[in-house]
């Protein structure tokens, strides 16, 4: 910032001095050249050119300072290497990249499941260091929208990702496959269950005027899947329950 200030100040002074010289020279030439015959005009022009040249060193002094400040403001690593020579190793070796992960089963389980991924990426993408940042349902969208940009990557359920992509907050680079008994699972869902003594609830329509407990309004398996089943049964999820907790 210091050298940039010197550069712009020198540039302004150079233009200012050069403008004064040109203004003085041209003004006198046009004012007096027509008042003399040809020999006197040539002598006068010679004197004004000499006066003009005497003022140039000051202008070139500011030009020199401007060039020095411009060169000094260029980072040393860029002066030493051409753009094609730059590699990832020239970046900050202490840079930490955070992966925000939806911790729908708690922070401890999240770290246990995802820490090996961070360790693998750190090992194979040196000098970057990857860290897992567990986030709750009420935190993950706020973190993605934050101007602080703490997280570089995010792993969330399909509902949250769809919201992020629709609003231009994220784009997919990989899809997680959940291991199954014989092959990776291709479906994601939830379970609506009742207490063992509630024999009055046997099907979806029996949920009318009942209290319904959900994991979170941003949870795919713990809320969105149930909403789909209820809607398919021809009921309005916003009206059938006496209360939602």
Describe the protein's architecture and organization.
By secondary structure, this protein is mostly helical. It has helices spanning 2-32, 38-72, 76-80, 107-124, 137-145, 158-166, 220-232; strands at residues 96-102, 129-135, 151-155, 211-212, 243-244. Strand 1, helix 4 (107-124) and strand 2 form a beta-alpha-beta unit. Helix 1 (2-32) packs antiparallel against helix 2. It is elongated, with a radius of gyration of 36 Å. 10% of the residues are buried. The model is unreliable at 35-49 and 76-93 (pLDDT under 50).
Helices and strands in order:
Blueprint: H1 2-32, H2 38-72, H3 76-80, E1 96-102, H4 107-124, E2 129-135, H5 137-145, E3 151-155, H6 158-166, E4 211-212, H7 220-232, E5 243-244
Parallel strand pairs: 1-2, 1-3, 4-5
Can you tag this structure with a few keywords?
single chain; 245 residues; mainly alpha; 3-stranded parallel beta sheet; two-stranded parallel sheet
Amount of beta strand? 5-15%
Given the C-alpha coordinates, what overall shape results?
A: elongated
Strand order, largest beta sheet: 2-1-3
The whole-angstrom Rg is 36 Å
Question: Which class do the helix and strand fractions yield?
Answer: mainly alpha
Roughly how many Å apart are the termini? 55 Å
Tell me roughly what share of residues is in helical segments: 40-55%
The poorly predicted ranges are 35-49, 76-93
Summarize the helix and strand pattern as letters.
Answer: HHHEHEHEHEHE
DSSP, total strands: 5
Biggest β-sheet description: 3 strands, parallel
Which oligomeric state applies? single chain
Total helix count? 7
Mean pLDDT: 76
